[in-house]
Amino acid sequence: MGYHHVDVSALEPAPDRPSTKRSVSDACGLDHLAAHVYEVAPGEEIPLAYHYHDEQEEVFYVTEGELRVETPEGDYLVPAGDAFVCEPESPQFAAVPEDGEATTVFVVGAPPVDDAHPYDPDADEP
């Protein structure tokens, strides 16, 4: 059996990110899912680029503030207490607008593969 109690605020933020990312899954050595907490200031984004995944499913659960998720189908505003789910091959870009408020988001992805591909919103297909 294995259990972990994680003080997220004590985790070192990942370097070179557009917002503060603290990895719960890395701290616990998890192999089957990626779990991260993002602290996103107004004007900051979560991903490094507008992208999609081949296999990974992602859930963005907003605990504080409001997250804007851009997709080819339109933009979604996700308030605290709501979740946004991205299936594989579904392009998305998550950020907090310049005029928004500081936002905290718990993001879970499975499987924890590095299969992100850049997405060009001006192209026809991912």
From TrEMBL:
Residues 1-24 are annotated as: Disordered. Gene3D superfamilies: Jelly Rolls. Pfam families: Cupin_2. Residues 37-107 form the Cupin type-2 domain. It comes from the Archaea. InterPro entries: Cupin_2, RmlC-like_jellyroll, RmlC_Cupin_sf. This is Cupin domain-containing protein. It comes from Halosegnis marinus. The lineage of its organism: Archaea, Methanobacteriati, Methanobacteriota, Stenosarchaea group, Halobacteria.
